TrEMBL record:
The lineage of its organism: Bacteria, Pseudomonadati, Pseudomonadota, Alphaproteobacteria, Hyphomicrobiales. Belongs to the ABC transporter superfamily. This is ATP-binding cassette domain-containing protein. InterPro entries: AAA+_ATPase, ABC_AA/LPS_Transport, ABC_transporter-like_ATP-bd, BCA_ABC_TP_C, P-loop_NTPase. The keyword Transport applies. Residues 12-269 form the ABC transporter domain. Keywords: Amino-acid transport, ATP-binding, Nucleotide-binding, Transport. One of its GO terms (molecular function) is ATP binding. Pfam families: ABC_tran (PF00005), BCA_ABC_TP_C (PF12399).
């Protein structure tokens, strides 16, 4: 593999990863990339499977199915799912921290960083008593190890505490020490499991500074699990969102921040925020997602936790205040209330609808499955059908005026272009044309 191709390849590629514990599917057919030189965040509600993914990457679990492909700087490739955990660290250069701090509390801060370099020091000693006697290259290796430890103590703002027991450090400083210790192993990929957990705003800021320094000055790529959205959105280049062990979103922070499925499943976590979420998003698909329960086949039973369960019409706050939440609370509902009533009982033949290629009924009596287009759910499919849109080729032929007309009664602006409905429809039309004729419809 050439050096050029190595720089363009992701450092880590997860392909169709599944992890089952008996009848429980903790991860289901998960695929995503971690790009070299970037910070990738893995987020999702509690129980989404994030730590299980980390355990598979670092060898604590052997996945039920799938591949975990790691490509090093030199072009050497490792299949991590086939390697024991200690080789993943030593050969593939993957380091990890844990949710719970695992420092040697009785050792000094400096000694914790020297312990991380024990492989190099043992090799220099010849694995014998010669190292204790200062024979061979051990003294030089020890000096280099101390210098590396000192560098990382400075980066972590811990140089003044080098001789203090690690257990005496404040919680945030212990978090930074754990990251510094992992970096002393010279990893190509650093996996951080909730590094900002329990940190105050000042400590979170110090963590952000350290992680940016690692990204910009060491060449180490970072994959992190985090619940602190202020950390995730500020430092991440790429975000992958999980729910019930399955990927529901994958993109830049801005793309994930505005993804309705993420808002419904993760970002709107408190009952008190439901009304704000509906008003801010103004999208009936989000309202529909909030008003339905989880996927019974793959998720837990209905629960109020993390908006996993159904949201009632009335939200009772902790102080006893009762707030009614309905479609009218959103921008979508407000637009719908302001829209004029349809001229007839059959919107499909309404001349004011503004769509050039409406039909009074589906061709051959069978409509395409419009839900195959990302962004069209059951509610929007019904509305499209009510307005005479039944087939992919109708959507593929829309012009600007058609899009504006459709957005006016779907009660959102810009989403058709953002989700590229027309390109998706054209692809589905082309795909259907290459298959043997089996009658019109949208079945897979």
């Amino acid at each position: 593999m050439s050096g050029t191709s190595t720089t363009t390849m992701p450092i880590l590629r997860i392909e169709h990863l599944s992890m089952k514990f008996g009848g429980l599917v903790a991860i289901g057919d998960l695929s995503f990339d971690v790009r070299r030189g970037e910070i990738t965040a893995l987020i999702g509600p509690n129980g989404a499977g994030k730590t299980t993914v980390f355990n598979c990457i670092t060898g604590f679990y052997k996945p039920t199915e799938g591949m975990i492909r790691f490509t090093g700087h030199a072009g050497n490739e490792f299949l991590l799912e086939r390697m024991p955990d200690f080789q993943i660290t030593a050969k593939a250069k993957v380091a990890r921290t844990f949710q719970n701090i695992r420092l040697f509390a009785g050792m000094t801060v400096l000694e914790n960083l020297l312990i991380a370099q024990h492989n190099k020091l043992m090799k220099a000693s010849g694995y014998t008593i010669l190292g204790m006697l200062g024979i061979g290259g051990y003294q030089q290796a020890a000096a280099e190890a101390i210098e590396k430890a000192r560098m990382w103590l400075e980066k972590a703002d811990l140089i003044d505490r080098a001789d203090d027991p690690a257990g005496d450090l404040p919680y945030g400083a212990q978090r930074r020490l754990e990251i510094a210790r992992a970096m002393c192993t010279d990893p190509e990929l650093l996996c951080l499991d909730e590094p900002a957990a329990g940190l105050n705003p000042r400590e979170s800021l110090a963590l952000n500074v350290l992680l940016r320094d690692i990204k910009e000055n060491t060449g180490t790529s970072i994959l992190l699990i985090e619940h602190d959205m202020s950390v995730v959105m500020e430092i991440s280049d790429h975000i992958v969102v999980l729910e019930y062990g399955r990927k529901i979103s994958d993109g830049t922070p801005e793309e994930v921040r505005t993804d309705p499925s993420v808002i419904a499943a993760y970002l709107g976590v408190d009952d008190e925020e439901v009304e704000d979420v509906l008003t801010e998003v103004g999208d009936e698909k989000v309202i529909e997602q909030l008003d339905t329960g989880p996927d019974i086949e793959h998720g837990p039973e209905a629960s109020a936790s993390m908006l996993a369960g159904p949201v009632s019409d009335t939200v009772v706050h902790g102080n006893g205040e009762r707030v009614t939440v309905d479609v009218g609370a959103s921008k979508a509902g407000q637009v719908k209330k302001m829209a004029p009533a349809p001229a007839t009982a059959k919107p499909a033949v309404d001349k004011k609808a503004g769509i050039a290629n409406r039909l009074s009924a589906p061709r051959d009596g069978k409509a395409d499955n419009l839900k195959l287009i990302k962004g069209i759910g059951p509610v929007n499919e019904k509305k499209l059908n009510d307005h005479g849109i039944y087939h992919f080729d109708q959507i593929a032929a829309w012009k600007k005026a058609d899009i504006e007309a459709v957005e006016s009664y779907l009660a959102f602006t810009g989403r058709i272009t953002r989700e590229n409905w027309i390109a998706q429809a054209k692809a589905l039309v082309k795909k259907a044309a290459t298959k043997p004729a089996t009658g019109r419809g949208g079945s897979k």
